[in-house]
Structures are given as structure tokens and as C-alpha cells.
Design brief:
The chain has 27 helices and 14 strands. It is α/β, with parallel strands linked by helices.
Length: 727
């Protein structure tokens, strides 16, 4: 047996030199001396000089350590670790770590011929944790590396014996790292994992619970008295049992967040195939210039061909410019729709938004272009409109092309731009693109600036109070409209349209005012009162914001707001117990409800459809009155709230419900020819309403191009079993 008598401390001032002298004289029982190492590390961190007195807290800890050394001679260590009647030999290594230190110990397990098991401590080693703070899993890995290096150092001692090696750790994360390739881990972890894997090729790493891990005493330090009563010298108890009763180490308690944090960050070099033609064209600001540049390039390329027999000189021809345009479009499609083109070349269906358009490939002037299949194959339209060329919206060339169309067509609006584009191309999300082009056009912004607006005010009480229809109403005028007489040679005379709007129900009443006289206006007011009842309040525009500000209504404005006219109207309304109100000057938003009614009645959007159609049909007073009554019925049939898609809901509420108790409906009418002057005059009224159907044919039919469902076509092949459905 071996024992050790420690060096007696020198009386006097306790310094770093004194502590290092006593600690270095100790024979290395690892669990004991690790405490001295931790104290020395603290002195180095405090930058204490060699002969300077140590702080009080360290002096107290050192004194406790020295007092415990008095029990060190009682520690007995066996010199011999083997056995004369040895049947089998195993080497077991244990490692553990704490925030302050880490260490390891190696044991020999011997089974003799009788079957007795003896376990002896062979060697041990400890180290303090580095001053640079590391995570506990990394310190556990440092302990495993220390164990691997210690095993590699003593392995040659047992070169004359046959033995098995088992290395134990209580860290599941370290075992997980040791099963990975070092190249997939971070530099710190990967270097240590590689070192451990190289030094312990023949060893078996296993997991041991912390409570029975003898290396735990090394990581936290121990006194000599604790060593004598611990398993440090004789190993854990399970080593004395059969191998089948050892800890199996099967546990899935691995913090993958820590494991993934130490994975090596992958860096890839991505090679992008740039389209130099499109990149060069991004330097040009206009569509015309980039097309002409490509056209000159194609002409130069054609001249370089050996089989070129026709030399073209002079200015660029339209065919050359069109071919250059197709060349640019082909490059754009190859950049943005390469995956879809490859699918179509393999006779497969495309994916994504193009699937609804049923695209196909067609060769045009040596360029294989992607075109829209659509549903207009049987339409009487040009081929370029039935199968337009597909283009993306997020492309510099496309934006310059749309801007070129916008300027060329006198700064056309978004809807007109979409119609012009679809004569030749189909741009995905064309509406958003055209709105963006128009919004960014400086010329359009200057002529149609966006004015600052205040927050919309509260609705007046007249709009929110349930009352009889037309109890409180507003009046506005539009026109003039020419009225013809059925007398040869008689010139037409101007008439105007008075529109009364109910504040509560938004019901509309339209009257024809035959001339600019007080009597004519009062007559229209009397007709309205006779059919709709006496209104207590009537509201109208002021002179500064009346519809008459429109140039065609200058005469109406001058008449209605003469002092004599206003006095006559006010006196008449007062006699009828009607309060006639004028909204504030320069505040047309006070009369938004009747302005909207005028807009709906006349169809004012970009043009005045109703006024144009009425002017072209030469209506008499009776015919004009009939047309306006039908328009009034249409306006009073518009729903007041959005329609519901549930068939069990009630029908939509309309102003007609408040007037007659049900919706105002008109019977279907037959179609008439475009030349309304050669048919019955009563059909002219129907022709006025059919103007709106022409707008439907131009604005709506293009939206039917996409297939929103049933866009997959199936083909039957030989040997396929199918079921015939005659239903």
C-alpha cells in the first residue's frame, strides 16, 4: 500500500508563492488537488503578485484546504492493480465536468479463475476549466478528450495483455457528437471529436448516470476524508456485477437545440447564369431604343452568316423590328418561365398560375414562344388576340413596354392599357402593373393630382331618420338634351333633366324640364310632389358648386341662381310649407348622394354614354320621358346592400320596396339593330339601354380567357380500363 505525508505549511504571510509551493509538493490524488488548482486560477485572474498577500476569502478557503490535508496520510492506495490468477482484463475510464474543473479516472477490472471481480484505480487526471467561459456540454467534451488522451498514454502498459476498453460519460450530448462526423461540427467541437475518435478507435463509449459516476468527485473536488469513504479507489458498484446489469445508456434525452447550434455553418457558391442581353437592356430607359438596338444586332449577326445571300441596307424595316421584339420576348420567357417550358417540352402540364391559361409552345420566326391556350379558339378574333404571348409582370422590359403603350396612346388609363396589351401579349397580373404605371406617370399625376382630403364627416340626421320616401330629398340637374318635334324643318330645343333623390331610401325620381324658365322648373317640382308626396325639406347645390359649373350647363347655372329665380322658388316652397335649403358654398361633398345619382343616371365614367346615345337618337319629349322613367326604374332596382350567396336568404332590399312594396322589374326585350334610325321609333328607347350591353362585350369577355376549373385534359391509351357514364 502507498500513503503520502504532505508538506507542512510555513508560518507567516500567505502569498501566491506559498500556495503554489505547497500545491506542487502534493502527490496528485486528483479529487483533492483540484481544489488547490481552482484557488490558484482565481489568484491569476486577480493578478496578485507572487509575494503579495492574498485576499481574505481565498486565505480562508486555503486554510480549510490545508486543515483537511491532515487526513491525507490515512488514504491508502494499492500499488498493484492486476492479479496473479487473472482470467480476463477490462479497462474502464470515466470522465465528468463542472463549470470550475473537469477530470477523468481509469480503472482495471479483473476477473480471476474462481470468478471473483476486483476493481482498482489505475490513474487519474484533472484540469481546471479555461478562463474563457464555455458551455457545460463543451466542458464535458473537454473531459472526454482528457480521458481519451490519458487512455492513449497508458494503453502501451497493457500491451502484453488482451483487454476490452469501456469509456463512460454522463453527457448524452457528448455521446451524440462522438457518433457524428467531425467535419459536420463547429471548429471547437469538431477538432476535439476528431481527436477522441482517433485515440479511442478500439474503445466502446457508453453512458453512465451522474449519481454513480466516480469522476464526479474530480470535477467538484473532494477532501481526503471523503476519499476514504467513497468509491473513488474501488470503482462503481455495478462493475462488480454481470455485464448485463450495467447501465445500458439508451436515452433519447438529447437537447437537439444545443447539438444543432454546434453544427458547421455551410457556405455554398451559387453560380447564376445571367442573361446578358436583358442585363444590357436594363440600361435603356425606353422600349423603342432597346428594340432598335436588338434589331441592329440581329442584322449584324445575319451578315456574318456564310449562307447569307441577301444583304439588307438602309433603315430598319418593320419585319426586323418585329423579329427583334420576339427575340427579347423569348429571352424574357427563358428567364422567368424556364421550368414551365421544360414541362411543356416533355408534354406535361404546367403548375401555378399558368395552369389556368392552358399554355402551349409555338414557333414564331425561329423563336419557340410560350402562348396562352385559353378558351377563345372559336372566336372571330385575330390569332394574336386568341393566343397572346405570355409575359411576366415583374420584368424591366415589360414595364418599359407598358409605359411605351401608355405614352403612345395619349396616356391611356389602366383599363385601356390592359385592352391594348391583350391585343398581342398576356401579362400576368396586368391590371396591377397598368395601375402602377399610370400611378408613376409624372404627366398623369400633374394633370390629375391627388388632393389632400379631410376625414369624412358624420352623416346628417336626415340620412339616418326613417321617413316616408322623398320626405327629405335633394335635387340636381344634368343636360342639356336636345328634344325633336315631329314637324319637318323644326329645329330641336334644349331640355334639362331634374333628378330628385330621397335621403332615407336613396330612391330616385327623374323629371324632364322643357326650358329655362321658372314655370318649367316649378312644373317639374309639382309633378314630383303629385306622385311622391309633399316633401318638408328640399336640398340643392349652391351657385359655386352646382353641376352647372360644367360648361354645357352654364346657361342653367346662370338661370337657377339669379336672385329673381331663387326668390320665386323660395316663395313657392314656403307657400307649400317646404323648406328649401342650399348647401354651403364650395362644399360639393355635402350633396354627394345626388351627385352619385346624376353619375349613375348619365353613366359618366370616361365618357357620357347616356347623353351621347340620346343625342344620336333624336328623341321626342314623350320618348325621352319614357327612357328616363325606365332608367329611373333601373336605379330604383339596385340593391341597397351586398347580395347574399345563400339561397335561403331574403331577396335584396331595393329603393323600389319602399315605393311600391316590391322590386321594380322590367320585362325582357328583344335585340334591335345598331342602326336605330331605320326601325320603329319606339325601339329607340330599348336601343338606349343596349348601349350598356356593348360595354359588357368589350370589358367582360376578355376576362373569360382563363380556365378556373376543369383545366386538366385526360387521354385514353390502349389497354386502359374506363367506365362509361351515360348520365
Amino acid at each position: 500500500m502507498f500513503s503520502f505525508l504532505p508538506k507542512q505549511p510555513i508560518n507567516g504571510t500567505l502569498t501566491k508563492r506559498t500556495i503554489l509551493s505547497i500545491a506542487s509538493s502534493l502527490f496528485d490524488p486528483a479529487p483533492v488537488i483540484v481544489t488547490a488548482k481552482i484557488l490558484l486560477q482565481e489568484l491569476w485572474l486577480l493578478k496578485i503578485e507572487w509575494d503579495e498577500s492574498v485576499p481574505q476569502n481565498i486565505a480562508s478557503a486555503w486554510q480549510t484546504f490545508v486543515n483537511n490535508l491532515s487526513n491525507l496520510p490515512s488514504v491508502r492506495i494499492s500499488w498493484y492493480c492486476l492479479s496473479a490468477n487473472m482470467k480476463s482484463l477490462q479497462i474502464h475510464g470515466y470522465c465528468d465536468s463542472s463549470i470550475r474543473a473537469y477530470g477523468c479516472g481509469i480503472y482495471t477490472r479483473i476477473v480471476d479463475n474462481v470468478g471473483n471481480v476486483s476493481v482498482r484505480l489505475f490513474t487519474a487526471k484533472s484540469r481546471v476549466a479555461p478562463t474563457k467561459r464555455q458551455s457545460l456540454p463543451k466542458l464535458e467534451l473537454c473531459g472526454a478528450q482528457l480521458l481519451a488522451r490519458l487512455f492513449a498514454k497508458i494503453k502501451s502498459t497493457f500491451s502484453n495483455y488482451t483487454f476490452d476498453t469501456f469509456l463512460w460519460t454522463d453527457s448524452q450530448i457528448v455521446l451524440h457528437w462522438l457518433q457524428m462526423h467531425s467535419s459536420t461540427l463547429s471548429t471547437f467541437v469538431g477538432n476535439r471529436v476528431s481527436d477522441i475518435q482517433d485515440l479511442t478507435v478500439d474503445a466502446c463509449w457508453r453512458h453512465v448516470p451522474t449519481k454513480i459516476n466516480p469522476a464526479d468527485m474530480v470535477s467538484r473536488g473532494s477532501t481526503p476524508l471523503e476519499l476514504t469513504t467513497s468509491v473513488w479507489f474501488n470503482g462503481p458498484e455495478f462493475l462488480y456485477e454481470d455485464e448485463r446489469k450495467w447501465p445500458n445508456g439508451k436515452s433519447n434525452d438529447v437537447d437537439m437545440e444545443i447539438v444543432n447550434a454546434e453544427m458547421r455553418k455551410s457556405v455554398f457558391n451559387i453560380i447564376v447564369n445571367n442573361n446578358y442581353l436583358l442585363e444590357a437592356h436594363d440600361r435603356y430607359s425606353t422600349h423603342t431604343r432597346e428594340v432598335r438596338v436588338v434589331s441592329w444586332m440581329l442584322r449584324f449577326y445575319t451578315r456574318l452568316k456564310k449562307d447569307n445571300t441577301k444583304m439588307v441596307d438602309g433603315p430598319l424595316t418593320p419585319d426586323e423590328l418585329h423579329r427583334a421584339l420576339l427575340c427579347i420576348v423569348w429571352n424574357v420567357q427563358q428567364q422567368h418561365y424556364a421550368a414551365d417550358i421544360r414541362l411543356l417540352q416533355r408534354n406535361k402540364l404546367t403548375n401555378g398560375i399558368l395552369r389556368n391559361l392552358n399554355p402551349f409552345l409555338e414557333t414564331t420566326q425561329e423563336f419557340e414562344l410560350l402562348k396562352v391556350g385559353g378558351r377563345l379558339q372559336l372566336a372571330n378574333l385575330p390569332e394574336s388576340q386568341k393566343h397572346p404571348i405570355l409575359l411576366p409582370s415583374k420584368c424591366g422590359f415589360v414595364m418599359r413596354y407598358v409605359r411605351y403603350l401608355h405614352i403612345k396612346n395619349y396616356h391611356a388609363g389602366p383599363k385601356a392599357l390592359v385592352a391594348l396589351i391583350r391585343l398581342q401579349f398576356w401579362i400576368v397580373n396586368a391590371r396591377d402593373l397598368t395601375r402602377r404605371i399610370v400611378r408613376l406617370c409624372i404627366h398623369c399625376v400633374r394633370y390629375k393630382p391627388k388632393l389632400l382630403q379631410h376625414m369624412m364627416g358624420n352623416l346628417p340626421v336626415e340620412r339616418l331618420t326613417p321617413t316616408r320616401p322623398f320626405s327629405r330629398c335633394g335635387v340636381d340637374f344634368c343636360g342639356p338634351v336636345n328634344i325633336y318635334l315631329r314637324v319637318r324643318g323644326k329645329i330641336p330645343y334644349k331640355a334639362y333633366i331634374a333628378i330628385f333623390v330621397c335621403f332615407a331610401t336613396k330612391a330616385v325620381h327623374i323629371e324632364v324640364v322643357s326650358d329655362l324658365s321658372t314655370d318649367a322648373f316649378l312644373a317639374s317640382l309639382k309633378r314630383m310632389i303629385g306622385r311622391r308626396g309633399l316633401p318638408p325639406d328640399i336640398y340643392s347645390d349652391d351657385a359655386t358648386n352646382f353641376v352647372g359649373a360644367y360648361s354645357k350647363l352654364s346657361e342653367l347655372k346662370a338661370f337657377l341662381f339669379k336672385k329673381e329665380t331663387k326668390d320665386v322658388i323660395t316663395n313657392y316652397c314656403a307657400n307649400q310649407f317646404i323648406n328649401f335649403h342650399f348647401i354651403p358654398p364650395r362644399a360639393p361633398h355635402f350633396g354627394g348622394i345626388w351627385e352619385a345619382a346624376v353619375k349613375s343616371a348619365t353613366g359618366i365614367t370616361q365618357t357620357n354614354d347616356l347623353n351621347r346615345s340620346v343625342m344620336n337618337t333624336k328623341l321626342t319629349y314623350e320618348e325621352l320621358t319614357t327612357a328616363l322613367v325606365e332608367i329611373e326604374a333601373v336605379l330604383n332596382s339596385w340593391p341597397l346592400s351586398p347580395l347574399s350567396s345563400d339561397p335561403s336568404d331574403y331577396e335584396a332590399l331595393t329603393p323600389g320596396h319602399f315605393l311600391t312594396g316590391s322590386a321594380l322589374k322590367s320585362l325582357p326585350e328583344r335585340a334591335v339593330a345598331d342602326n336605330v334610325n331605320q326601325v320603329n321609333r319606339w325601339n329607340q328607347i330599348t336601343a338606349v339601354k343596349q348601349i350598356f350591353w356593348k360595354r359588357w362585350s368589350h370589358d367582360y369577355i376578355s376576362d373569360l380567357q382563363a380556365r378556373t376549373k376543369w383545366n386538366t385534359q385526360w387521354f385514353l391509351s390502349m389497354g386502359t380500363m374506363y367506365h362509361r357514364n351515360d348520365g
